[in-house]
Amino acid sequence: MVTLYHWDLPQKLQDDFGGWLSPKIVDIFADYARTCFELFGDEVKWWITINEPKQICGAGYGIGVFAPGIQQLGVGDYQCAKNVLLAHAKAYHIYDKEFRQKNQGKVAIVIDSGWFEPATTKPDDIEASERALQFSYGLYGNPVFNGDWPAVVKDRIAQRSKQAGLKESRLPDLSPEEIALIKGTHDFLCLNHYTSHMVSARSEEPPATDFGGDLNVNEWMPKEWPRGGERWFAVWPPGMRKLLVWLKKTYNNPEIVITENGLSDNTGTLEDDHRINYYRDYLSNCLDAIYIDKVNLTAYTAWSILDDWEWSTGYHSLIGMYKVDFNDPNRARIPRKSVGYFTQIVKNRCLVDPKDCVH
């Protein structure tokens, strides 16, 4: 599986015309995708066009904490979203028309999302959960799988734009031609999932015209949920199963591939039983989704095999099954305990001790 774009925008494209804020990037990305398909199509059968557009747009062009660091809250993030979707769609159609018959590969876009658990069974809290999911996964998933922005996203941003005295919605329209271009550009559904949140309804409308104000839900992580290595990271395995079931129902039971799932910490310990527990419990919920809920989940990718560069924390957030010794000029790789555990999962297709497995 090869990803064409994982946040590595050439600086010149940002400097010359604003990167993902400009529609100029759509055809440039399409040309780049065609080049990759031409060069590597014989060897690559699973293509990802773009990884985590929510982070590219929300963190890169909304709150500005990721590169290129543009702060255009409630405007830039939505304009970026449109251009990312159009770029993905054009790349998909290029593969479909020019390369699929010869290379017999698959193409998809990766979208990340947490699960949003309603705090109570009250209708307002259940609606807040659904709204959060539509603003999180649906903002990018709905145009690809169902066509157009999610209705609740369109309605809320239009309403709040009008309340702010704007003549047009801050969410750019998708024309009928653009909707048709984007809809159906998937050979499978990709999910990056790490964590969950509790949510409840808010009675008041915040004045800020930004993504958080448009969403407008209370969101938190209970103290009793174990934490990963970053403040946004809480461990709640049932969220995985719940999210998979939601994706099945919302997008008509597509083939689903989990493209990222794993646990970070900031200790670097080799005795990472907490990571073993994470993989066991999250994969157990995946199995329940498959066998009980009949979710069409066909593949799972652990993140990550190595300690890697995490975008806002560098090498301080350690997420690999192999430790990288950055004090060693050779950057030695040292297996953590989780390596042995994950190896036996792959070898024996079992989440517990192989002798206790029932196949």
UniProtKB/TrEMBL annotation:
InterPro entries: GH, Glyco_hydro_1, Glyco_hydro_1_AS. The keyword Hydrolase applies. GO terms for molecular function: beta-glucosidase activity. The active site is at E260 (nucleophile). The keyword Hydrolase applies. Keywords: Glycosidase, Hydrolase. It holds the Pfam family Glyco_hydro_1. It comes from the Eukaryota. Its EC number is 3.2.1.21. Gene3D superfamilies: Glycosidases. GO terms for biological process: carbohydrate metabolic process. Belongs to the glycosyl hydrolase 1 family. This is beta-glucosidase. It comes from Callosobruchus maculatus (Southern cowpea weevil).
